[in-house]
Each structure stands twice: as structure tokens, then as C-alpha cells.
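User: Second chain of the day. Same drill as before.
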Amino acid sequence: MKVMVFHIGADRYALPLWAVARVLPAAALKAIPLAPDYVAGLLDLHGAPVPVIDLSALAGAPSEQLWYDSRILLVDYPLAEGAADGATRPLGLLAEHVIGVDTIDSAALADAGVAGAPFLGQVAADGAGMLQLVSLAQLLSADVRAQLFPATGAPA
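Assistant: Same format as last time:
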């Protein structure tokens, strides 16, 4: 399976490559009042507001500065887990130290075996150490999803 690899602190994480629509340089964001700390703000993407989540802050790691290899991974976020209509909205994921595309053996993926953040999925080991997948479907709680993607259409 092809994955986009990045760091949260010293640890490596990945998103399935099929989930990444675009990779953008880190950009200035507009703050969203009363949003959780891990909501970095709104990205102006060709005139359309796109909410951006700081993956380091979401994982409880201290947010560092923006690095030369910090990127916004633009994904098509599923609005409801298991929704039959497959409705998605653009969501930016601010990731530090984006390494790039790698291949992992799907058969080597294993359950992490620990309770923790629901958005963290299976792990695989390779020559560089452990790599943990991020689950888009579990990324946001229902209340944060409702705040970022209100039923009226445009992000708040």
C-alpha cells in the first residue's frame, strides 16, 4: 500500500496515499474562534475556506514551528462514518516533517494493541522503525465535525 509519511514529534505516521488529494505548502491560516486548540484555522483555497487540523496538537504533542518540510495534506474528509452517500468535504491536515511517499506491506499491518487516540490505526515496522496509520474516519469527534462542517454548507 502506498502511503504519505510524516512526523508527529519524533514518531512516524502515515495516511493512505489514496486519501491525499493534494499536498500544499504551509500557509497563513485564519483563526476560528472557540475552536479546539488542534484546529489550526481556515485555509483560503482558491477562494473557498478549508478547515485545517494541526496533527501534532491533535495528538497531544507540542506544536513546533513551521519547518521547511511542513505541509498541509488536503484530504476528502468523510462527513459521516459509513454514510451511504459518501459525502466528503475538503479538510487540511497540517503535518510537520513530511517525508513523502513510501510503500508498506498491507500484510505487515497489525493492531496497535493499545487504547488511545481513536484516530490512530494500525502499525507496521520497517527498516526505519514503526509507522502508524491515521484513520480519517475517526479523526474528528462529532461535535468538532459539526462545528467545522455545519449543515448549511460552508465551514464556520
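The chain has one domain: 2-148.

User: Great, on to the next one.
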